[in-house]
Amino acid sequence: MSVFLFIIEFIIIAGMVVGLYQKNTNRVCKSKKRYDGKTVLVTGGTQGMGLEIAADFAHRGARVIVACPFEDEGADGKARIIKSSGNENVVFKLLDLASLDSVRNFAADILKTEDRLDILVNNAGVGIPGDFLTADGINFIMQVNYFGAFLLTLLLLPLLKKSGTSAEPSRIVNTSSLLHKYGQIDFEKWNITGYWYRWQIYGNSKLCLVMFTRELSKRLNNVNVIVNGVDPGVVGTKIFQNTGLTCGSIVSFLAGTLFKQPWEGAQTALYACTSTRASKYSGEYFKNCGLSRTVKTAYNTKQAAKLWEESLRLVKMTDDEYNQCFSS
Fold it and tell me: Which residues pair with 91 in a beta bridge?
């Protein structure tokens, strides 16, 4: 028992040291850029970091679209953003990234109803709620964190390209994680249940997102759209409650107390979305409001190309859909 308590004490003390360092060195996005007349879409924009990102853009005058799979959470998030910013031009739409049909319906609705899309923030994600397959036959964590974002991004490319210019390109920002460094790409086993630890699946999904970011940037080939990934750091949000009621609450409390609050975690994404300096890059990775490096695996171009093809297959993208995504 004494050994167990010693381990707990060590973890808490180590966490306090790391957390104190992170809080004292956390950078803040300094851009004051306005987005009047622009449209910003934030998935998972109804709570946590996503809510902070969406509210920030509402304060900047943008038309803000927030998306999540829950009606009550969406309505509440929309109301909070409007109350905070005074900007009534906030829209909530249902989006379930764990359903390919939902993603397709959502994207079709955006393309039909919106005149422009200047920024897409793929912020939505889950922690480790379970190791099971969705109705699409895809691992739940992988689909929400990666495959859903992959499909959504490609389907919205026509509107992003239409809205961007050489002077002011549209931006795609993908929220990754430090745990991408522990991710693995195994095309034979990425949808097998009972094979990976759930934290490993989470890391795998975030590595895929980083590699997708680099591959998409290469394939966009200067079409007035840039795409970058961000690492927000360790942030105390409800995502940690997926570890279980008791454990999750403890982890959320510790992360929020020792590490970053959602507003702090949102800063690097806001930097990637708004900074003039960040607009000079595409296919890169930002951390603490600055350019950073990903794990070495993410720079494997052959692996990234195969990931692209396998992802197209799993989301069942047709040739017609693909051609529309990348048509001029």
Answer: 65
* Cα-only R_g, the chain: 19
For the chain, the domains span 34-235+264-326
CB 206 within 8 A of CB 183: yes
Q: Which of 35, 146, 202, 271 is catalytic?
A: 202
Please state, in angstroms and as integers, the Cα–Cα distance from residue 194 to each residue in 11, 139, 189, 190, following that order: 28, 11, 10, 11
CA distances from 218 to 21, 161, 163, 239 (A): 36, 15, 19, 31
Strand partners, 97: none
Count of CB atoms situated within 10 Å of the CB of 323: 9
Residue recorded with tokens 């549209």: 170
Say if CB 238 and CB 255 are below 8 A apart: no
The answer to whether the predicted template modeling score (pTM) of the entire model surpasses 0.85 is yes
Per-residue pLDDT of the chain (328 residues), as tens digits, is 566 666 666 666 766 666 666 666 778 899 999 999 999 999 999 999 999 999 999 999 999 999 999 999 999 999 999 999 999 999 999 999 999 999 999 999 999 999 999 999 999 998 877 889 999 999 999 999 999 999 999 999 999 999 999 999 999 999 998 888 887 888 888 888 887 778 888 999 999 999 999 999 999 987 899 999 999 987 765 555 555 545 555 565 666 567 788 899 999 999 999 999 999 999 999 999 999 999 898 899 999 999 999 999 999 999 999 999 987 6
Topology (CATH) of 34-235+264-326: Rossmann fold (3.40.50)
Active site residue 299: no
E strands present in 106-187: 119-122, 170-175
Angle at 161 between CA 71 and CA 268, to 5 degrees: 60
SS (H, E, C) 175-222: ECCHHHHHCCCCCCCCCCCCCCCHHHHHHHHHHHHHHHHHHHHHHHCC
| Beta-strand relationship, 285-287 and 290-292 | antiparallel
Whether residue 308 contacts residue 301, with contact meaning beta carbons closer than 8 Å, is answered with: no
